[in-house]
Amino acid sequence: MSELILHHYPTSLFAEKARLMLGFKGLTWRSVTIPSIMPKPDMTALTDGYRRTPVLQAGADIYCDTALMARRLEQEKASPAFYPQGQEFSVAGLAAWADSVLFLHAVSLVFQPESMAVRFAKVPPEAAKAFIADRSTLFNGGTASRPPVEQVKHQWPTLMSRLELQLSRGGDFLFGVPSIADFSVAHTLWFLKQTPVTAHFVDDYPGCCR
Known about the structure:
The protein has helices at 13-25, 41-47, 66-76, 88-110, 113-119, 125-136, 149-170, 180-192, 196-203; strands at residues 4-8, 30-33, 55-58, 61-63. It is an alpha+beta fold.
């Protein structure tokens, strides 16, 4: 078994997913706290320029995507499984949807001016500006983009209602037992719960707040 090292910072959305996955597996891991914005000289030297968070180091191997991290952790410890037998395709499909569609909708809600004002209320203005400028570069030149917030507010009830319906059939978990799908949804909802401005986008759907 390789030594596992997670490079992350406490408020990172996808780092929360990685931490939950490591805890679910009951694996021992070391923590390296990295800056939330560039520059990140130590990490980018390790990853050959990759700047996003988190990064999982397993021996000499580096994993920069939580979907790949899940596969590696499954190799480290097969049980409990992220991909229950017979449901592999379904759980992976919902996880991919959550890590793209649900995630981008949540980011649009979080980056509303009202939400950002609360998040950075106790942070010096210069630090808040630096964070926002840093995050704006993540979507420049890429294939993913944040949908307009008014569009998100219109679509959000449909997305959450679908999750509630799935949970009503699966019980405490989306597919009846814990899977990678649950972790991919949980960290996005955790992100929204961080301030009262966005918490109601989760709290208004009690079926998703168990």
